[in-house]
């Protein structure tokens, strides 16, 4: 059975319960579900909001491509990726990934892979706006994210 | 050809989107970047750190040595920071 | 700040949304939340229910001990473990683990570690009851689970 | 000493819980298992595959060579299958 990933790029928040039920309700083949939620963080109390810019069309297309790669690599029963855009204030949700499978290892690895690839390949950019009102600042890409994404190619080469 | 810019590349160029005539000697993404840089100071500033710029042709990631082929849209942007 | 894990052993189902909110609401220090849900699976359609026996008192105590190990190992902002007992029918939830952290790697690893340790160390036993009505069968422990749990000691030795 | 059994160990012994007098020469978990096996056929059957049996003293996992010390409760059960 072909699994079609659910990919959404939207300004609205998402509900993890609703998205979980969508992957499990009325089914008996899901043994494990791993969900990742990314939130807007601000320990210092200096951030007023993150502004998430995206490339409409390509953002959805790239998330579908990454999802298809995960589906080829792991035996998943379902996969959901929701990424918000627009202004997001500290404490709010930014991104949700849910991977469902018969077994927990596949669900964990697929969700982890999806987040790593999404971070380095999905066309979204964060700009920080500050409480002080001083002009926004584009967030720099992290070297760590590129290294995290590279873990999956190494694994591929080893297997 | 339709050209789109995102994030700080967009801010430096000063437009989100523009349509340009591609000269016949512009064959690759790198050629296109060189051509855009020659247009004015804003474009030159946007592409100053040109090795940092990522490129998509018709909404697919490509390297700078990729041929433009019959792509209808090129997009230029910084490394992505979503998630 | 000391993080106190929330551990519950109960016959009732849980609500992933409610448990997620408990770890994130009114906070700005949570950047990543990984949740694992384990469900009762029955692709063959032969299972009427799983019966989950547990060792009252020790089940809670052991889940707290495993949670404390995770909190010592990763910089978490919160941790929730809920394990059901009693009869659970196919499609229903069995276990929920949520790890919250500033960063996604810590949240993923802590949730993964917790499930591996829970599987091999928390005193719960599954008995399968069949649609055919033939007597129940105790589920055998999987060698794979022991190997999964051993991954974390290997990592510790390497670091 | 209070003794508890779970899962198929419980079913084979035939009781969930019992209180036994521990003879003076029973010092370790392995000694206790040997003593329990000697009680009757049900106990003998429950502990037949004794290397498969897991043990907790006062609700903490221990190995079979552990000393009973002043533990008040011992529990015997198969490898765990929760999660």
UniProtKB/TrEMBL annotation, chains A, C:
An example molecular function term from Gene Ontology annotations: molybdopterin synthase activity
One of the GO biological process terms: Mo-molybdopterin cofactor biosynthetic process
Source organism superkingdom: Bacteria
Subunit relationships: Heterotetramer of 2 MoaD subunits and 2 MoaE subunits. Also stable as homodimer. The enzyme changes between these two forms during catalysis.
Pathway: Cofactor biosynthesis; molybdopterin biosynthesis
Annotated keywords: Molybdenum cofactor biosynthesis
Similarity-based family: Belongs to the MoaE family.
CDD domains: MoaE
Assigned EC number: 2.8.1.12
InterPro entries per the UniProt record, alphabetical: MoaE_sf, Mopterin_biosynth_MoaE
Name of this protein: Molybdopterin synthase catalytic subunit
Secretion signal, residue range per the UniProt entry: none
UniProt keyword annotation of NAD present: no
Reaction catalysed by this enzyme: 2 [molybdopterin-synthase sulfur-carrier protein]-C-terminal-Gly-aminoethanethioate + cyclic pyranopterin phosphate + H2O = molybdopterin + 2 [molybdopterin-synthase sulfur-carrier protein]-C-terminal Gly-Gly + 2 H(+)
EC top class, as a word: transferase
Task performed by this protein: Converts molybdopterin precursor Z into molybdopterin. This requires the incorporation of two sulfur atoms into precursor Z to generate a dithiolene group. The sulfur is provided by MoaD.
Keyword Transmembrane helix attributed: no
From TrEMBL, chains B, D:
Pfam family for this entry, one: ThiS
Annotated CDD domains: Ubl_MoaD
InterPro entries assigned: Beta-grasp_dom_sf (IPR012675), Mopterin_synth/thiamin_S_b (IPR016155), ThiS/MoaD-like (IPR003749)
NCBIfam families assigned to the protein according to its UniProt record, in alphabetical order: moaD
Protein name (database record): Molybdopterin converting factor subunit 1
Gene: moaD
